[in-house]
Amino acid sequence: MKEKTLGELLQSGYKSKHIKDELRDNLRTKLKSDHPTFEGVHGFENTVIPELERAILSKHNINLLGLRGQAKTRLARKMIELLDEYIPVVEGSEINDDPLNPLSRFAKELIAEKGNDTPITWLHRNERFYEKLATPDVTVADLIGDVDPIKAANLKLNYSDERVIHFGMIPRANRCIFVINELPDLQARIQVALFNILQEGDIQIRGFKLRLPVDVQFIFTANPEDYTNRGSIVTPLKDRIGSQILTHYPETLEIAKTITQQEAKFTDEVKESIYVPALAKDLLEQIVFEARESEYIDAKSGVSARMSITMFENLMATAERRSLLSGDDQTTIRLSDFMGVIPAITGKVELVYEGEQEGAAKVAGILIGDAIHTLFPGYFPKIEKLERENDKNAYSDLLEWFFTETGFELLDEALDVEYQSILDSVKPLDVLIKKYQPEADKKDIYFIKEFVLWAMVEYEKLSKNRIEKGNQFKDLYSNFINKL
């Protein structure tokens, strides 16, 4: 049972600890025991996390600098796990006063009056996280505090009495982690108000001669200044932030897939009824990688990791809707289902002038095509652009089939039986997969077949026309004739 009075706390031998020492000591314990420090954050193991650990060991305030969707706030929230599980506070204190080192007049007077009988409560680490999004309308009063005329009137106090002070968010975050998101958006004059807190650890309110050495671990997040254009971090404030750590996007498809699988939310029913081929997962992440390199998208704005998460959710929803309409209890993701992820792409990319000219939906389609183009050589032989007329290659029989036949239509909402029957009619696809993907999972076969067709289109060997309810695949030459 936890101590309930100051006397019991003193008897237990409890010792006060600054929050930065708490974080440092608990991090040291985790590192010594080889226990992971920021579980659930992937891709930063050899880059961001070691730098963050060094900053914590140095007892620094931290600025996490990176583009959107790079887990900056997630990292800040994860630091809660490095705090002690519970800390004692003076009961009724607005600013989480330490019973052994009180700051506020309220706590000092209460301890002076009740002594060892001063009641204390215990604050859990989950309640020691404060977060503020920096917006242009944030004031010094919001962050630090101000005189409260209503309190003064109710208590019949003079404005010179410090009891009329209404504490802002930072004093209320005493002995806590305080995160200011998008720091450059904070007006310069408000940033200046943080100087004293960061350097001396104390605050001043409305000219009161009141030194309040608050104990706060500050974490700031910011986008690179050249992107925001809305403001910047003033140089003296930068100078007072101990460590600036650069974040980044996932560097490999495997890491990106791990993040997406972890963050995307589905019901158990959806998970059980829809099968996702391995290639579909790779393609989903490759689209995001292509977006980050695309000439149509502003690289400075970044392409958030949230894009692949919402794309995956849209992809599953597309398959779920299709199966509900067709009455299929079980279904598999198709490549044509990727048309359903376009709304998740268009809302999350910032287009440059060329992209605006093309249109967001068309750019999304281009990204899907680019991803197919990039992944295809990893599964099948490379398609040469220029070939001699009579030279046979791996795809000659497939192209011959389309030249002989009239092509076919693949409807978005076709029954699984119809969909499979149409793809099975293209016999050269079976030969290709048997030869170059002999170990492919049987469940993945139809997705791979469709993948080959889309790749032929991207390499300009077949034509694909979007019709009202699906796609029409034809020989490239016949499509050219039809246009004449």
Structure description:
The protein has 484 residues and is of the alpha/beta class. It folds into two domains: 6-246, Rossmann fold (3-Layer(aba) Sandwich), CATH 3.40.50; 253-483, no CATH class. It is built from 24 helices and 14 strands. A five-stranded parallel β-sheet has the order 4-7-8-1-9. Helix 15 (278-293) crosses helix 16 (306-326) and helix 19 (360-375) packs across helix 23 (445-458). It is elongated and about 95 Å long. It starts with 5 loop residues before the first helix and ends with a helix. The relative contact order is 0.09. The model has no long low-confidence stretch (mean pLDDT 89).
Number of separate structural domains: 2
Low-confidence stretches: none
Instruction: Give me the CATH architecture of the largest domain, please.
Output: 3-Layer(aba) Sandwich
| Helix amount | 40-55%
| CATH fold-level name of the largest domain | Rossmann fold
The CATH H-level homologous superfamily of the largest domain? P-loop containing nucleotide triphosphate hydrolases
N→C terminal distance: 87 Å
Which CATH top level class of the largest domain fits? Alpha Beta
How many β strands by DSSP?
14
| Largest sheet data | 5 strands, parallel
Kindly report the average pLDDT value: 89
Shape: elongated
Short summary of the structure?
GO terms for molecular function: ATP binding; protein kinase activity. This protein is of the alpha/beta class.
